[in-house]
Every structure is written in structure tokens, then in C-alpha cells.
């Protein structure tokens, strides 16, 4: 079976089409399991890679879409989404249950469960950004404005900090 025919990738393709996006899923020759791997495979800056990170706030799952060269400021995430409570990074089982994707291929759309989405405004430094598409070798290209539109996410200026 082609990677493009895997159920998770097909779900991303269907979500892109349903959102009237012209983005197409690309298959990379090397794994894009990490932001660094994706940037190297695509020959782009690390910051142009969208990391889809799942957290829980007071036990409720949320997603943060963060530039590859930055880290999520978990303390700011709840405030940005208007949700109070303790913030924790979701474990692999929770990520899979909430998104329907395995870590390394978590797409920002086509999720198994609707969640609130906060988007790092620093992604706007790049005309094109690349997000995972349901498999470690698959990504799609988009823009910050389209990413906000297709995910229903809120672009936030204070949810990321420089990575060490």
C-alpha cells in the first residue's frame, strides 16, 4: 500500500479538500518524524515546520501549532485559549486517542476529536510553512492564514519561546 493510501493520510487529504484547500500531501524520501528531519528533507528553515503539539488543560485536550525553531510556552497556552487550569504535555496514548495520529505524523486537521487550537504567530515569518500529514514521511505546504482557516485555530503572539 502506498503511504498516500494509509487511512490517516487519506483523512488529512479529505480534511484539506473539505476545507477548500489547494494543499496536496507530499511524500518525503526521508522521515519527517521531527521538525529537524522535516526541515532537512524539504531544504527549508527549521522555523517553517509546524509542530502539532497536544496538551491538556485541566484535563481537556488542546493543540498548539508551534514553529519548528521554537518551544511552546505551556504557561501562556491556557491564557491564549481562554482556558484556566493546569497545563500538561499529553502522552503518546492521549495524542493518538485525541488526534487519531501517532506522534511523528500528527496533522493539525482531520483530528479524531475536535480541540481548541492555538497557532504560533511566529510562523508568519515564512511565506510557506509545512505541517505533518498523518504519517512521518508526509507533509503539506500551507500559509499561516490558511492554517488558521483550515484548523479553526487562533493565531497567538505569546505561546512560543525561543528554543535553547
Could you say how many structural domains there are in total?
Answer: 1
- Average residue-wise pLDDT: 95
**Uncertain regions: pLDDT < 50 for 5+ in a row?**
none
* General shape: globular
CATH homologous superfamily heading? YbaK/aminoacyl-tRNA synthetase-associated domain
Describe the biggest sheet?
8 strands, mixed
Beta-strand content estimate:
25-35%
**Number of alpha- plus pi-helical segments:** 5
Number of strands: 10
Class computed from helices, strands and strand pairing: alpha/beta
| H/E element sequence | HEHEEEHEHEEEHEE
- Range of helix content: 25-40%
Keywords:
164 residues, alpha/beta, two-stranded antiparallel sheet, eight-stranded mixed beta sheet, YbaK protein, 10 strands
Question: How would you portray this structure in words?
Answer:
The protein is of the alpha/beta class. It has a single domain, classed as YbaK/aminoacyl-tRNA synthetase-associated domain (YbaK protein), CATH 3.90.960. It contains 5 helices and 10 strands, in the order αβαβββαβαβββαββ. The protein has helices at residues 7-18, 35-42, 74-81, 92-99, 144-151, and strands at 25-27, 49-57, 60-67, 70-72, 87-89, 116-120, 129-132, 138-142, 154-156, 160-162. A hairpin with a 2-residue loop joins strand 2 and strand 3. The protein is globular and about 45 Å long. It starts with 6 loop residues before the first helix and ends with a strand.
